Amino acid sequence: MSHEITSFESIRRTNPAGIEYWSSRDFAKVLGYVNYRHFQAVIEKARAACSNSGQPVEDHFVGTDQMVEIGSGAQRSLKAVMMSRYACYLVIQNADPAKEIVAHGQTYFAIQTRRQELSDEELEAQRRLAIRSELKKHNSQLADAAKDAGVVEPQDYAIFQNHGYMGLYGGLGAQEIHRQKGLKKSQQILDHMGSTELAANLFRATQAEDKLRREQITGKEKANRAHREVGEKVRQTIQELGGTMPEKLPSVESIKTLESKARKGLKDGTEK
Known about the structure:
Blueprint: H1 3-10, E1 12-14, E2 20-23, H2 24-30, H3 36-52, H4 57-60, E3 61-71, E4 74-83, H5 85-94, H6 100-149, H7 154-168, H8 174-180, H9 195-214, H10 220-240, H11 255-271
Antiparallel strand pairs: 1-2, 2-4, 3-4
Helix pairs in contact: 3-5, 5-6, 6-9, 7-10, 9-10
């Protein structure tokens, strides 16, 4: 590890909750900003970049007071900013490129931020696999409940499922969702949902099954209506919480690819 990289690691701090951060005062010194006021302009540019990227600025830049030594052992409290790793990445991108240390910092925080992204991607993959597995189980239970209500034929069950989708997706049925997501005919909607969208559909499925059984609903039309009502309620909850409507969420890599990777990883682990 180079001296420059060590400099960034040496000023890294950890709060009582175990979350890492960097102080803007320390950061300015490492980057060679003699006048902190000049560095504040860099922070403002980084804040703007954070906002433009759709990230909540308050999660990455937190104002605080820091005791700073001013000579002869005396200290005084000065305004500072606690910055996340991502905030440091944005700051370093907006710092003076003529400074050699800035170039080293750009490399360091670009690599570290990418590592964090990979970690987040792995976490999302695990969520998707877990929720998709639960959804398969509850869709089977929902099919049993629908059958008890009189939805017996495969064509009737497809219509029943479509009513649930229409409730949750603002009137869009399976075919419309398929088109809106830009999926090919051979691709299944559920296989290309992120964890948030999968969770909404899992909630729809569990609540629809519960409603059919609890209210002892009988008849195809009543079952269809109940499923749509549940979907509408889930959609309403998402809206009240300020969430993104499911039809607006992007389609993602097929979960079959993730399942294949998970099986390969398990196989590799047992072979060692």
